[in-house]
Write a structure and sequence with these properties.
Elements (H helix, E strand, L loop, with lengths): L2 E6 L9 H11 L2 E6 L11 E6 L6 E8 L4 E4 L7 E12 L8 E2 H4 L16 E2 L2 H17 L15 E4 L6 E4 L1 H4 L1 H11 L10 H5 L8 E4 L14 H4 E4 L1 H7 L8 H10 L2
Length: 268
């Protein structure tokens, strides 16, 4: 997964539907927007996206999401006959600069992040992979500590993502904590890529195809996550295989990790 920096300059384009997009995220968990991309030969569906506001104060990162389409040609925003390369982005977080703080340039210029050009002339620039882990960590800390109107990590009933495992109708609820690259990486760096319950390792079983694959389970129930909740990826997340993840959610109140281990040991 590569990471790209997209830019919005309100001096050039008035985002009149900004609040509607934020409301849509609150209701459904995502808002789809098409954006021009200069790195059209490198970007692919699944790549990570950060959106930065430039042009006038306040300046800073105001959104994040993932690319969900191949590159396509579309009319330029200025209404001319020019065609530009675009991608569809599913934003999971968008902040309104007039109503809440942004991850500002002063913070982005510190440490290794200072190596990045945060004021590019084009949109859709690839970010050096050497700094993406630090960027994800800073962004995660920002979102979970600042006063933001719509807590981007509080899942709603409509926002729950359903994941199905082959051969079973059971659905698994995956929260934004589990999908967030920083939270996921921190959990895996600590616990490894083997299932914490059954010890299944996808890379050992499938080779290169399974490398890096594992679900991450959030121990705290979705209904218990409140506005002031702050996650500790090591304390609150665990790596689990899709089968164990499905079994954890077999009942309304998810089984605990210890209960699942006991069931496996009992049936050996």
């Amino acid at each position: 997964m590569k990471t790209f920096l997209f830019a919005w300059n309100p001096k050039k384009w008035n985002w009149t539907t900004l609040e509607q997009s934020i409301d849509q995220i609150e209701q459904t968990g995502r808002a789809s927007e098409k954006w021009s991309v200069v790195s059209h030969k490198k970007i692919q569906p699944g790549d990570r996206v950060f959106l930065i506001r430039l042009g006038k104060q306040p300046k800073g990162i105001m959104g994040a999401g993932f690319v969900v389409s191949p590159v396509f040609l579309s009319s330029h925003w200025d209404g001319s006959d020019r065609l530009v390369n675009r991608v569809m982005i599913d934003f999971e977080v968008i902040l309104n600069p007039e109503k809440e703080p942004l991850l500002n340039l002063d913070i982005l210029k510190q440490g290794n992040l200072g190596k990045v050009n945060w004021t590019p002339q084009s949109s859709g620039i690839k970010i050096n992979p050497d700094v993406t882990d630090e960027l994800e960590a800073v962004w995660f800390d920002f979102l979970t500590t600042q006063k933001i109107r719509h807590n981007p990590f509080k899942p709603t009933e409509k926002e729950k993502q359903k994941v199905y495992t082959e051969g079973t109708p059971n659905q698994v609820i995956v929260t934004k904590y589990e999908r967030n690259p920083f939270a996921r990486k921190t959990c895996i760096d600590h616990y490894g890529l083997s299932c914490i319950i059954c010890d299944f390792d996808f890379e050992k079983q499938y080779g290169e195809l399974g490398k890096g694959f594992i679900h991450v389970h959030h121990l705290k129930q979705v209904a218990d996550i409140g506005k002031e909740y702050q996650i500790d990826p090591i304390k609150d997340l665990r790596p689990v295989c899709p089968n164990c993840h499905a079994m954890i959610h077999k009942r309304k109140e998810p089984y605990s990790i210890d209960e699942m281990k006991e069931k496996i040991n009992t049936n050996k």
